[in-house]
Amino acid sequence: MDGRSRALRAVRLSSEGATHMTAPKRGRPRRGPDPERFHEIVDAAAQIFHRKGYSATSIQDIAEAVGVLKGSLYHYVKSKEDFLYAIIDGATQVALQEIQAVARMEAGPVDKLTAFVGTHVRFATSHLTAYSIRLREMRELGQERREKIQADGAAYNKVMRDVLVQGQEQGVFDAGMDVDLMTTIALGQMNALTRWYREDGPYTPEQLADVFARTVVSAVISDRGLQGEGVEGLRRSIRAAPRADVAAQA
């Protein structure tokens, strides 16, 4: 399953909590909202939220972008927030699916940490609009939805935290490292790329993944972890590290 298919599947799941329909009249069965069309509308809403900001965007803006009357959108949602939730939850579910492949890897801590960083960077750059909205606009969600996204985010962060703990237990990562703080700092650095990365810019996702992986691994590696390889050997190991099998999530 490719990234587009995973995103559509996630939006379909999110739409179950976002769509709203009035009860059909007796004897006149009614078709539900078309998931493909809903995905198109969510895509349009995401582009506008990303460009104007959630607060400055109206339902009318979204309706005009997809060429329908404002009232037609209420066939799909109850409120503008439903579009925001579909965007954020859709991106979050895809990210969780991809990062769980890292958690299942049978590999050493350095390779798993490298895979985590690479998976995160590739996700952030390939879902740039939706992920930027998640980072910037999540506070606009209602409490219940916000707490759900935060819980999913905690599960995501736990994958990195567990890899760092594994490395400490095996002696290859700094025993004195605060794994919670390191997880927060590393993810913060990687998430910052959503503010400046451009598809037509000078750096590819693979270049960014390599630089971020070297930065993070170098920050946590212990003297024992360097023994026998040295810095250059470590860099070669990072470049040769296996990727998480994200395709297996299909």
TrEMBL record:
<feature type="domain" description="HTH tetR-type">
    <location>
        <begin position="35"/>
        <end position="95"/>
    </location>
</feature>
<dbReference type="InterPro" id="IPR001647">
    <property type="entry name" value="HTH_TetR"/>
</dbReference>
<dbReference type="Pfam" id="PF17932">
    <property type="entry name" value="TetR_C_24"/>
</dbReference>
<dbReference type="InterPro" id="IPR041490">
    <property type="entry name" value="KstR2_TetR_C"/>
</dbReference>
<dbReference type="InterPro" id="IPR009057">
    <property type="entry name" value="Homeodomain-like_sf"/>
</dbReference>
<keyword id="KW-0804">Transcription</keyword>
<dbReference type="Pfam" id="PF00440">
    <property type="entry name" value="TetR_N"/>
</dbReference>
<feature type="DNA-binding region" description="H-T-H motif">
    <location>
        <begin position="58"/>
        <end position="77"/>
    </location>
</feature>
<dbReference type="GO" id="GO:0003700">
    <property type="term" value="F:DNA-binding transcription factor activity"/>
</dbReference>
<protein>
    <recommendedName>
        <fullName>HTH tetR-type domain-containing protein</fullName>
    </recommendedName>
</protein>
<keyword id="KW-0805">Transcription regulation</keyword>
<keyword id="KW-0238">DNA-binding</keyword>
<keyword id="KW-0678">Repressor</keyword>
<dbReference type="GO" id="GO:0000976">
    <property type="term" value="F:transcription cis-regulatory region binding"/>
</dbReference>
<dbReference type="InterPro" id="IPR036271">
    <property type="entry name" value="Tet_transcr_reg_TetR-rel_C_sf"/>
</dbReference>
<dbReference type="InterPro" id="IPR050109">
    <property type="entry name" value="HTH-type_TetR-like_transc_reg"/>
</dbReference>
<feature type="region of interest" description="Disordered">
    <location>
        <begin position="13"/>
        <end position="35"/>
    </location>
</feature>
